[in-house]
Write a structure and sequence with these properties.
It comes from Portunus trituberculatus (Swimming crab). 8% of the residues lie in helices and 37% in strands. With 416 residues, it is mainly β. It folds into two domains: 358 residues, Regulator of chromosome condensation 1/beta-lactamase-inhibitor protein II (Methylamine Dehydrogenase, Chain H); 45 residues, no CATH class. It has a five-stranded antiparallel sheet, with no helix packed on it. A four-stranded antiparallel sheet has the order 5-6-7-8, with no helix packed on it. A four-stranded antiparallel sheet has the order 9-10-11-12, with no helix packed on it. The longest helix has 9 residues. About 3% of the residues have low confidence.
């Protein structure tokens, strides 16, 4: 996959792209002639451990100290040389980032305490949330519309921010200003994965059980009803050992250790992949015809689902640039990221892109180097006294005229 498939990266200089290590594209759903329904901001981590931001900068979500938009990458100084490992974003937007050492930072929109800094003051620069974590090391993060989750190395889930539907899991609907451990019904067991819908939260336990809490109006918690939950509730209808869970705007996907895919929640665009548009408030197994599935993807910003099978085929379904795809559709993509770059509305990343291997394909890079190369060229054109070297095979592939030209009956075939 070429990084240029993401519009926000299309103007970056090649030398900067070559330095990129990790990238996250985000932004609230702005649908207008001027802005468009695309990812409007990006956070970039380079190979030399500097962190940059670029884009619209709504609510100061670039973390550069002001609210000025920028088409050129600007450094987020407090995060440079911190070894940022993961990034998550909300719809405000607010942004979370954690480091290899387990530190957690937040910035951007904070109208609902989603930054976890104890206030509702907007964050123009990264705030060290770890101050409120009592020396806990963060290993995974997730964000909904205006709430945040963090998973620690001990397998504890911490939540904070907007809580109008119980998405913080505190047993109330009061907003949570600082990180609070989600305890009810989870006991002392370890959590291995977390995910956020717009206003719901999900967790996978170390024994493969799944729990959900928050808004449940579309059945996105998978409990067999449409009742909101202020505390975690177990999704009892799931079968098998679940190893990964992802959330769309108001639907949920779960992947088992045997490669089975389960879906539930809102289905107005076919995002469950059931072949129809009926909501499901209990998990249903989908995409069985695809065989073993090894990875899944969705984003709380959109109604799109995607999956990768064990033979590396990529499928997608749901809301695809205005179209409703109600069953898995095979693509020619090589990565789940391409689904979200080209078909999601808005075009945001479902998780940060590991840029290694995504800048230029080896074939494209080789062809670029070979262009007008005197050592490898086997045909030369003279244009205005300038000699341009090329390759017969490439020209034949690219153009019908040259395909005919380089045949035995053309005298040019034997000329230099």
């Amino acid at each position: 996959m070429e990084l240029e498939k993401w519009p926000i990266f299309s103007l970056l200089k090649p030398e900067f792209v070559e330095k990129m290590k990790l990238a996250c594209v985000f932004g609230e759903m702005r649908v207008s002639v001027l802005v468009g329904n695309i990812g409007n901001e990006a956070i970039i981590v380079t190979k030399d451990d500097d962190v940059y931001a670029m884009g619209f900068n709504g609510a100061g979500c670039l973390g550069v100290g002001d609210q000025n938009s920028t088409m050129e990458p600007r450094k987020i100084e407090p995060l440079c040389q911190k070894k940022v490992k993961g990034i998550a974003y909300g719809s405000g937007p607010h942004v979370l980032a954690y480091t290899e050492s387990g530190e957690l930072y937040s910035w951007g929109h904070n109208g609902y305490c989603q930054l976890g800094n104890g206030s509702t003051n907007q964050g123009l620069t990264p705030y060290l949330v770890t101050t409120h974590l009592h020396n806990k090391r963060v290993t995974r993060i997730a964000a909904g519309s205006h709430h945040s989750l963090a998973l620690t190395e001990e397998g504890e889930v911490l939540a904070w921010g907007q809580n109008n539907y119980g998405q913080v899991g505190s047993g109330t609907t009061t907003n949570q200003p600082t990180p609070r451990r989600v305890i009810a019904n989870l006991g002392g067991r370890q959590v291995v994965d977390i995910a956020c819908g717009q206003t719901s939260s999900m967790a996978v336990m170390d024994n493969g059980e799944v729990y959900g809490w928050g808004l449940n109006s579309s059945g996105q918690l998978g409990l067999g009803n449409n009742v909101n939950q202020q505390n975690p509730s177990r999704v009892t209808a799931l079968q098998g050992v679940i190893t990964k869970i992802v959330c769309g705007y108001s639907h949920t996907l779960a992947l088992s250790d045997e490669g089975s895919l389960w879906a539930w929640g809102a289905n107005s665009y076919g995002q469950l992949g059931t072949g129809n548009k009926a909501n499901q408030c209990v998990p249903v197994r989908v995409a069985q015809e695809l065989g073993r599935i090894v990875d899944i993807a969705s984003s709380h910003c959109c109604h799109l689902s995607a999956a990768m099978t064990q033979n590396s085929k990529i499928y997608f379904w749901g809301h695809c640039k205005g179209q409703s795809v109600v069953a898995p559709m095979e693509t020619g993509f090589s990565s789940l990221h391409e689904v979200f770059a080209l078909w999601a509305s808005p075009s945001v990343t479902y998780e940060p892109i590991n840029v290694t291997g995504f800048t230029r394909s080896s074939l494209a890079q080789a062809m670029s180097v070979a262009l007008d190369d005197e050592e490898t060229a086997d045909v030369v054109f003279v244009v205005d006294d300038r000699r341009i070297r090329a390759h017969r095979a490439v020209l034949k592939i690219r153009c019908q005229y040259f395909r005919s030209m380089f045949q035995e009956h053309w005298k040019e075939n034997n000329l230099e």
